């Protein structure tokens, strides 16, 4: 039996039962669609996170209190008070020669108010360097100055949403708002910016870190210190110098007992890659269940098809078709079904992923890009074809082993 004729016969058989063929491949379509969506959305999230991180520059080191979290229970370490003024003073160019500048940060949830309007948000105490590192600058007015930090002034720069909720269409510059019953003068307003490196610029009020420590936070420790290093190449050396400086200051001889942790951009990129990889694997495994269910459905329908076409099988064998020819045709039908399901799944997955990327970009105001993975698409085709081959082999073998005389007698 010629290959072209086998393809033609298999295609005719599938067309003869369009509804049954469509329902048969539904599990394959759902499984491949889910896998494409999982890969596309996770790659889009990964790209968004990495682009925001890289926007900081590779010469930034993050110093945080508490040891590096190794599990959910370790996240209580963020409450550690191991970073204070003495740590900030110890981190100087004498101890870290490659250090360019430092930007401490204190984050405190608070209620902002003006007249009868209130806004529950985060207050960030930091220095002028913070705006330069994140490349966020006011659209109206100015950012904090070194004098604001030194004097512990009551100046505040607010995000777009804060301004809209407290002032509406009115001008906010020069006006006062209350933070924990203390008056602050608005000196700047950010444009609508959204998330920048895990930082929601639209819903924040930024004040000098000295003011935050003295009047807002109620504590004397920092949640984060950002260190700007002179060059990208000097980052590993500077990170080591920071470790040594803080360990000496805290009399730590065992690295396992560190009460701080240091993160570079390279560390964050590695972690993001690991997390998205694990999520892809877990969610992909869940989606693969529908592929197995779809494969079982394929095998079941092919067994029904073999029974229905018993006389056809007997006739072909009587006309000289070999068992291998019969096996090849039924196996080809199963593979064609699953590959068609895989192609439909890829198309639907791409469409859904594209829609998700647009919705997330609009609703969350994120620069979320649509990512279509050709590797995932190729894998989807290969997996769907493999399922057709695996689950189609048993019905095909049953068809090839039928006796032509008994098959012709079948009613």
UniProtKB/TrEMBL annotation:
Principal cellular location given in the protein's record: membrane
Keywords: Cell membrane, Membrane, Transmembrane, Transmembrane helix
Entry membrane topology: Multi-pass membrane protein
Ranges of residues in domain MacB-like periplasmic core: 21-243
TM stretches of this protein: 21-41, 282-306, 327-356, 376-394
Subcellular compartments: Cell membrane
Pfam family for this entry, one: MacB_PCD
Any single GO CC term annotated in Swiss-Prot or TrEMBL for this entry: plasma membrane
A GO molecular-function descriptor: transmembrane transporter activity
Superkingdom of the organism of origin: Bacteria
Domain ABC3 transporter permease C-terminal: 285-404
Family membership noted in the UniProt record: Belongs to the ABC-4 integral membrane protein family.
Protein name: Multidrug ABC transporter substrate-binding protein
